Amino acid sequence: MKKITRRLPQSPLEINTALATAKATKDSNLPGRQALKTDTAAELNVWVEKFTLQYNVVSVAQAAVNKYTPIKVKARNKVRLFCSQFMHAVNFEIAQGILMPGDRAYYGMDISTGNFLPLNSEAKIKESASLLIDGENSRIAAGGTPIVYPAVAALAAANSDLMSKWATYSNLVAKHFIEKQKLSRMARDAGNFIRIMWSEIESTFAAMPIESRRANSRAWGVVYTNMTVNIPVKLEVIDAATGEPIAGANATLENARLMVVLNNSGNGALFTPDEGPDVLKIVATGYNPVVKNIYTTDGKTLILNIEMQKAA
Q1: How many helices (H) and strands (E) does the chain have?
Q2: Packing angle, helices 152-204 and 122-141, rounded to 10
Q3: Which tens digit of pLDDT belongs to each residue from 233-245?
Q4: Residue 38: exposed, middle, or buried by beta-carbon count in 10 A (0-12, 13-18, 19+)?
Q5: Which residues have a Cβ under 8 Å from the Cβ of 188 and sit 6 or more positions away?
Q6: Which H helix or E strand runs over 120?
Q7: pTM
């Protein structure tokens, strides 16, 4: 069944909105809308100030990460391109007889196939760039002719730029994470305060008809939602003669169109969204079916102990 119920804020954004709405209504000084005790109103002012401040700090930190991400990605893509071009150059010069296949070992490449080093992640790009730079420097130091395009100096400069931008990006991500953790811890306490505040608001309007009570409470930021409430129907089915549980019986609520197979202990449960009358039917191999009229009530678990007679 559908039931209108109060829904507490779940996210920092919802908490920030709930606090801001309550403060705006409190500060409006409209007649009939003063629903908070003096201490609660004062605590609301404190929460609005400190939660909004931390919420904004997190938003600024997230914006900084978002702004810097494409800068870091551009530097990463440049290094990936240089790495790819460099490995192409190595294989080309081997094909031209300028380098020997064994020279691929300097760079960590497969000597026989010339397969490229992996470039499918930022970690692999940085690792491959280091192997190519170190390998080229070692080959030159051993008397080899430098690869001209791209030159190792250009690859090294691009990789150094990536490392710098990666460090900046990592610091921004770390700052955002720390501030977000602070906000999460704060949100737990703020959520508890909102729960108490909303209860105080609703009690102020308790004498009003329910729709007027909700309308006034909504002005203070109280949120109501339609929620499906399932009513449990718990079953225990036994043999009428022996008292032994009947495993594997099928239990059905015909109006709700629900079915459950009972476990080895003869137990099972159905969860109906409908309050009111229904027809319970239980069928088990070797037993006479049981048909029983039941009535489910919102907020109450219906527990039924059913005895089944063996079929003649």
Answers
A1: 5, 9
A2: 160
A3: 999 999 999 999 9
A4: exposed
A5: none
A6: none
A7: 0.66
